Amino acid sequence: MGDTREPFDDLFDPVADQPAAPPAAPQVQMVPCPSCGTTNEATNRHCVSCGARVAQGPLPMAPQPLARSTAGSRALIVTAAVIAVVAVIAFFYNAFVDDEPGTTTVANGGSSNTSSSTTAGNGGTLPETVELTANRVVPSAQLSGFPADNLIDSDPTTMWQVGQEGVGATLTFFFPEPVALERIEFKNISDQESFLRNFRVRGLRISPDDTTRPTIVELANTRDLQPVAIQTELTKTVRIEVTSTYPAEAVGELQPFKELAVEDISFFGSVVTDG
Description:
Elements: E1 30-32, E2 39-41, H1 71-96, E3 130-132, E4 136-139, E5 160-162, E6 170-187, H2 192-197, E7 200-208, E8 215-218, E9 226-229, E10 235-246, E11 260-262, E12 264-271
Antiparallel strand pairs: 1-2, 3-12, 4-6, 5-11, 6-9, 6-10, 6-12, 7-8, 7-10
């Protein structure tokens, strides 16, 4: 049986075994170089001819460097660390170390509070603080009618006077038995006119016989009672030297005197007893 297809039928049959066409290559966008005009791919950042920048997008940014501490901040950190260490040391020191007894310091007639021991240097006991009475006082000089004994007679109307403005004058007090001193009280003249017209004690050097280190005192220029802290254990004599004075003053038409005047000197502490 013969082929009955018409010759024109072949025109409409698919082409057998004909390979498919390859996909079209993607088109690359081209842009001219703004500097030299050379055509470059749009993805290029720089011209292939002159090197000028082609792409207009932002350039990649480098990461920000880590902030560095300045010299000032480092010094502040070190200082804070040192303060913290010192505070810790001070805390443990105060918590575990006993405080040592303070030394006596005196300025302008003031006194510092010191705690006295209940045991004397010879093993005896110290009773409570009382006013101590010196049984004798020996001055380096005194004016007639104004002896140094007036300083220990407990009479506020009497006084000790010495001439030549009083600088260098000394008083030595004697106790009938050993005492432990805690303070000495000085009193200038109570009467305002006499206070001003006489020289007044300013600087003092106090030397108990049971210590080689004197107490240096500066009194205020006042009529008020002035206590001076001093701590001894077995004192039988106390030597007081005037090292400086406040000048006498005129009162109205009344001229100043050239004498130094002191109304009273009192001692406080304990009598040392054995056993």
